[in-house]
Amino acid sequence: MAVLENGDNWSLGQRQLVSLGRALLKQAKILVLDEATASVDSSTDNIIQDIIRTDFKDCTVCTIAHRIPSVIDSDLVLVLNDGRIAEFDTPARLLDDKSSMFLKLVSEYSTRSSGVPKFDLDVIPENLSIPNTE
Prior knowledge:
- It is a single chain.
- The chain has 134 residues and is an alpha+beta fold.
- It is built from four helices and four strands.
- The chain has helices spanning 12-26, 42-55, 91-96, 101-112, and strands at residues 30-34, 60-64, 77-81, 84-89.
- The longest helix is centred in the first third of the chain and has 15 residues, at 12-26.
């Protein structure tokens, strides 16, 4: 299959995967992901998250995401509200703070995802507690 200019005949998800592959080949030291997995299915999302966690472990990764599993094991989380910084701390500290917006987002995600594995516990640091939403 021929590739059209700018990959116009590829899906957004395919273009995102090619971009991630290019970053891998370039051995990028900084990786900025803006909804990197928004246009892929959950299986591909899991593969991408695994690649980011393993192959970019020594890089600075800035992730803009709405999917909680994309950021739950990050070193730091920045929560925006109406375009302003509302919270900035480690996921563990934010989850320990009962007034945290991040805690509310995680709880809401867990509630909406009932019946679906909430988080891959193999990639969440041991000192990070996921709130019980039951």
